[in-house]
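Chain A, query sequence.
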Amino acid sequence: MTGRHCRRALLFAPVWFVIALMLAPASAEIAGCSGLGKPFAIAEAVGASDAITIRLAGGQEVRLAGIDAPMDFSAASEHSRRAMAALNDLVAGRRVALHGVAEATDRYGRLIAQVTLTGTNTAWVQSELVRAGMARVAPAAGLPDCVTALIGREKIARQLRAGLWGDGALSVKEASATKTLLAGLGGFAVIEGTVLRVGEAGGRLFLDFGRRYSRDFSIIVPRDAQAGFAKAGLDLRGLSGKRVRARGVLFEQGGPAMELRSPAALEVIRADGA
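Chain A, predicted structure.
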């Protein structure tokens, strides 16, 4: 089977086949994430409420931390349906362990947690969805080793164009494609491009990707987040001329923009594209 036909097979494979791939041994992945130590709760999962939410037997919902997937109301409804079905097949009727901070909730009252399956077939749920191309990594503060592990899985899914990565509307976008980025305002995106210049205004750092800073794509790093990037070894002021990959929610500030607070949301791309 050629690489092109293999990628097409992954994109249109039935959910049961995707689940079989997802349930490969995951102990090494779990060991690589410090956030997957002792759980703060263990509960029975009824199933998936959407592509990134698990409904527990007691009625509580859990939002999967650190990932993003298309929702039903997006243009990518088929990807949303497949991601929700994959999550449901993975967790329905299983006991799941919730890792993180017990008090962490989102504005909808959902618990925010890393989730693993308990019992004989253990698995890290976020990792399984990411490596099957059902979800993208959406870094949050803390647990950098967990994000690193997830990004490694995402890289393989991107190379295979598995799942959503085979859809041009959802795959990596170029920073120079201003019209495309503006069309995706309010949504999560993964963007690559070369930083043209780095500037500062009002304590915020601006990574500009075009000469028209008021129209072209820019990354904004607030003052209170900059120390975290320095601690992670990212010299923001030294990124001029470097090709980077950023992930986050697009908004408009003159042109399309993305605010980054987590160092894990910004990768410097090596010459080999990694």
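Helices lie at 3-12, 15-22, 27-31, 77-91, 125-131, 144-160, 178-183, 226-231. DSSP finds eight helices and 16 strands in the chain.
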